[in-house]
């Protein structure tokens, strides 16, 4: 059976204030054409269909159009909700959509109820595990702890139990939205740390033939059977070196996996350039970036006059300007966003404690209190979203 594995569309998201709706439409055109031209038998979408719980109307219309086109091809689509999606909103009408071959898995309680597909070699059971917020699903899944490894492990135990009741030779596929140990993150994924731990071991997926993962935005192979498709578009400059693609997965009669990357259309390449302003303006080697979206890091010891305007004359698509002087031992002038870049909520809170106490950081007990408070806020926010 041939699958097309994709994830993290983030419909409605912009890139440094650049509207990406046309680029997202181009990707979906490419996806539908790939399904048609490459004889894809099922599409797997591993979460984060939208960028936020209440997406803009234009993003909803784009999603609606994509579903109609996929249904029109007669190719089943199996889709789960991610941590950016509102599971309840995305799941509205799922019963009716199922009749058209669109299978939306948004309820954790249904994680062991597969979509059973058939090919010449027999059945393939596709299990959809939506993003599992530990504190919200622990009781539902009977997990021993409210952390990612425990709840995903409990969900996979249910999957394996159901699979054991299936006819001999049934092949199995799982869709999941999680941070699996060994994966490489970028700046554009939302932090899902709970209890100081964000990742789960790859071994949690033992017993299935293929795990189609979402959440991390870089296409990655953790094992031959466990892969991230990554996002189809770049959503931060940390993804400048990513090759954006989907996975074309062939599952043979014995469940062996053969994978091929299918490149996604690139609306405009990304470039991160660094150096003194005058060097960036004059360096002939940078000519290849003149039509790219650019993040420029200026290393001048003092801020040049009108740097953005001057950069814009050579690099008209400059979107981000960062100051990082070569000779500055400390950076008190760094922007708030710069100081927070790449840091978790826990690290930010601990830095604040050290700042207000003249350098004396949090001890173990205080760090535990901070972690508990952060987890409680996440749980409250998730509960509020469910209630909306």
TrEMBL record:
Pfam family for this entry, one: Metallophos
Record field: transmembrane: none
UniProt cross-references to InterPro entries, sorted A to Z: Calcineurin-like_PHP, DNA_Repair-Maintenance_Comp, Metallo-depent_PP-like, Mre11_N, SbcD, SbcD_C
GO molecular function annotations of the record: 3'-5' exonuclease activity; endonuclease activity
A Gene Ontology BP annotation from the UniProt entry: DNA replication
Keyword Ligase: no
All copies of domain Nuclease SbcCD subunit D C-terminal, residue ranges: 267-355
Keyword Lipoprotein appears in the UniProt entry: no
UniProt entry keywords in alphabetical sequence: DNA recombination, DNA replication, Endonuclease, Exonuclease, Hydrolase, Nuclease
Gene3D superfamilies: 3.60.21.10
CDD domains: MPP_Mre11_N (cd00840)
Domain Calcineurin-like phosphoesterase: 1-217
SUPFAM superfamilies: Metallo-dependent phosphatases (SSF56300)
Family: Belongs to the SbcD family.
Role, per record: SbcCD cleaves DNA hairpin structures. These structures can inhibit DNA replication and are intermediates in certain DNA recombination reactions. The complex acts as a 3'->5' double strand exonuclease that can open hairpins. It also has a 5' single-strand endonuclease activity.
NCBIfam families per UniProt: sbcd
Quaternary state and interactors: Heterodimer of SbcC and SbcD.
The protein's name in its UniProt record: Nuclease SbcCD subunit D
Protein species of origin: Streptomyces noursei (Streptomyces albulus)
Gene (UniProt): sbcD
């Amino acid at each position: 059976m041939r699958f097309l594995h994709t994830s993290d569309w983030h419909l409605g998201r912009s890139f440094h204030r650049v509207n990406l709706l046309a680029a997202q439409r181009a990707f979906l055109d490419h996806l539908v054409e790939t399904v048609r031209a490459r004889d894809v038998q099922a599409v797997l979408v591993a979460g984060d269909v939208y960028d936020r719980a209440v997406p803009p109307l234009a993003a909803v219309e784009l999603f609606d159009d994509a579903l109609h086109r996929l249904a029109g091809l007669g190719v089943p689509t199996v889709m789960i909700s991610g941590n950016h999606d509102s599971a309840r909103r995305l799941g509205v009408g799922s019963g009716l959509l199922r009749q058209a071959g669109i299978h939306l898995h948004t309820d954790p309680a249904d994680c062991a109820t597969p979509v059973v597909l058939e090919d010449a070699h027999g059945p393939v059971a596709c299990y959809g595990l939506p993003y599992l917020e530990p504190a919200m699903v622990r009781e539902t899944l009977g997990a021993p702890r409210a952390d990612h490894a425990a709840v995903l492990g409990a969900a996979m135990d249910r999957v394996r139990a159901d699979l054991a009741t299936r006819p001999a030779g049934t092949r199995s596929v799982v869709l999941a939205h999680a941070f699996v140990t060994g994966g490489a993150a970028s700046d554009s994924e939302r932090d899902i740390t709970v209890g100081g731990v964000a990742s789960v071991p790859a071994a949690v997926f033992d017993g299935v033939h293929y795990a189609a993962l979402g959440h991390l935005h870089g296409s990655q192979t953790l094992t031959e059977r466990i892969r991230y498709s990554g996002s189809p578009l770049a959503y931060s400059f940390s993804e400048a070196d990513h090759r954006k693609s989907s996975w074309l997965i062939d599952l043979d009669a014995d469940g062996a996996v053969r994978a091929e990357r299918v490149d996604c259309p690139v609306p405009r390449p990304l470039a991160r350039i660094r150096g003194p302003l005058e060097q960036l303006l004059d360096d002939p080697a940078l000519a290849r970036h003149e039509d790219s979206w650019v993040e420029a890091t200026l290393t001048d010891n003092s801020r040049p006059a009108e740097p953005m305007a001057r950069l814009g004359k050579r690099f008209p698509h400059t979107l981000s300007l960062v100051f990082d002087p070569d000779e500055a031992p400390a950076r008190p002038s760094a922007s708030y966003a710069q100081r927070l870049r790449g840091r978790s909520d826990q690290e930010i809170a601990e830095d604040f404690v050290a700042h207000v106490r003249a350098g004396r950081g949090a001890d173990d007990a205080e760090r535990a209190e901070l972690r508990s408070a952060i987890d409680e806020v996440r749980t409250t926010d998730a509960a509020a979203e469910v209630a909306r």
